[in-house]
Design brief:
Elements (H helix, E strand, L loop, with lengths): L2 E6 L7 H16 L3 E6 L5 H12 L5 H25 L4 E4 L6 E3 L8 E4 L2 H8 L3 E5 L2 E4 L4 E4 L4 H13 L3 E6 L20 E3 H9 L7 H10 L3 E5 L7 E4 L10 E5 L2 E10 L4 H11 L7 E3 L6 E9 L3 H15 L3 E5 L2 E7 L9 H11 L6 E5 L2 E7 L3 H11 L13
Parallel strand pairs: 1-2, 1-9, 2-6, 3-6, 9-11, 10-12
Antiparallel strand pairs: 4-5, 7-8, 11-12, 13-18, 14-16, 14-17, 15-16, 18-20, 19-20
Helix pairs in contact: 1-3, 2-3, 5-7, 6-7, 8-9, 10-11
Length: about 400
């Protein structure tokens, strides 16, 4: 008998009818002889509604109380799903993150999983019951406080539970058919990817592909848990994320991100320790930075630019201005109207000319590149937000990633 972990997102459990459909799938999987553990998100827009409600009460709600509030959303959906499965004659029990033994650090709103004991989960499985766990939540074992993992944390919960229980696979059910070569809302001929490596999926997720959370992919890669991203509305195969794929395309896909802004600290004195002085206060404030570029020094000074989430940009600007004043820099500028487009593919490290083609393609479209960042399998460019969709379409077409294109060259 194999163990399958299934995760259902908010859209999949967004109404009683959809919960019934999910319960049918769970009961069918159990009836096929599998042990089943299910992780569910809050129903529909419940999390957003709870955040809005909190902000009507307090403009800056305490993080501890926000965790108490937001975990209520998953408690509702997990209990309703358990009821729906029971109605189908299959034994089921719902657990909060703490009841399931999901232990985290003490970072409210962005906790990290440190261990999953899973004692009660294992006992329930041994009794032949389906276990349904509220996603995105855990408990700090030292302070006995409820914590949340942050938005999208249910994906991480599911893959981490799969790793802790030794599951054969983790199925991530969502409202799309799988991972695509680009966002189909921007590129109509975007093609569903059948298989993609953990490394490529990590780069896609970090570059803005919202289908799967980066932390979930990290868990999958670390513990070699195959992840199947698929639709909850039909039974067709989706996208498998696994360690080794049969063929690795030169380019797997184009991702984009509208959630960042660009900060430039102008005319920073060019001497050792300055970069640390700029970035240490930002790190201490818990601000995650993405791309960092330092210009060539001229006349003893240089510009340092970085991108950060728009949600943190006001705080980042305040900190950067204080640092600039302390260093004697010229000042700080913030550009909110930017977007990031990224090309990802394991084969690009062995195929010269990919970067040149990216830059020439954007140039031909009249799209100016403000920042560039690369890894062995990714090239990212920051461009004006008004041209982001154009950049995605142009790169997708240039590298022939669409449904109508000929077979992609493989490495």
């Amino acid at each position: 008998m194999s163990l399958i972990v299934q995760k259902y997102g908010g859209t999949s459990v967004g109404s009683p009818d959809r919960i019934d459909r999910v319960a049918d799938r769970i009961a069918e999987t159990s009836g096929d002889g599998h042990d089943v553990v299910v992780v569910v998100s809050a129903m529909g827009k419940t999390t957003d509604d709870l955040i809005d409600l909190a902000e009507t009460i307090h403009p800056d709600p305490p993080k501890r109380e926000m965790d108490m509030l937001l975990t209520a959303g998953e408690r509702i959906s997990m209990a309703l799903c358990a009821m729906a499965v029971e109605k189908r004659g299959v034994g089921a029990v719902s657990f909060t993150g703490s009841q399931a033994g999901i232990l985290t650090d003490a970072s409210h709103g962005s906790a990290r999983i440190v261990e999953i004991t899973g004692t009660r989960v294992k006992e329930a499985l041994a009794e032949g019951r389906v276990v349904i766990i509220g996603g995105m939540q855990g408990v700090d074992p030292l302070k006995k406080e409820v914590t949340t993992l942050g938005r999208g944390g249910s994906d991480a919960t599911a893959v981490a539970v799969a790793a802790a229980l030794g599951a054969d696979a983790c199925e991530i059910y969502t409202d799309v058919d799988g991972v695509y070569t680009a966002d189909p809302r921007i590129v109509p001929d975007a093609r569903k990817i059948d298989e993609i490596s953990f490394a490529e999926m990590l780069e896609m997720a970090a570059a803005g592909a919202g289908v799967l959370m980066s932390r979930a992919v990290e868990f999958g890669r670390r513990f070699n848990i195959p992840i199947h991203v698929r639709s909850s509305f039909h039974d067709r195969t989706g996208t498998w994320v696994k360690e080794n794929t049969m063929e690795q395309a030169v380019i797997s896909g184009v991702a984009h991100d509208r959630s960042e802004a660009k900060v430039t600290v102008r005319s920073v004195p060019d001497h050792p320790g300055v970069a640390a002085a700029v970035f240490e206060p930002l790190a201490e404030a818990g601000i995650n930075l993405d791309m960092i570029v330092q210009n060539i020094a001229r006349d003893g000074s240089t510009d340092i630019s970085f991108t950060a989430p728009i949600s943190s940009i006001d705080k980042a600007e305040t900190i950067a201005k204080a640092t600039a004043e302390a260093l004697g820099a010229e000042g700080v500028s913030v550009e909110r109207g930017v977007g990031k487009v990224s090309l990802v593919g394991a084969g690009m490290k062995s195929h010269p000319g990919v970067a040149a083609k990216v830059f020439s393609t954007l140039s031909d479209e009249g799209i100016n590149i403000e920042m560039i960042s690369t890894s062995t399998i990714r090239i990212s460019c920051v461009v004006d937000a008004t041209r982001l969709d154009d950049a995605v379409k142009a790169l997708h077409a240039a590298f022939e990633l669409g449904e109508a294109a000929e077979e992609v060259v493989t490495a």
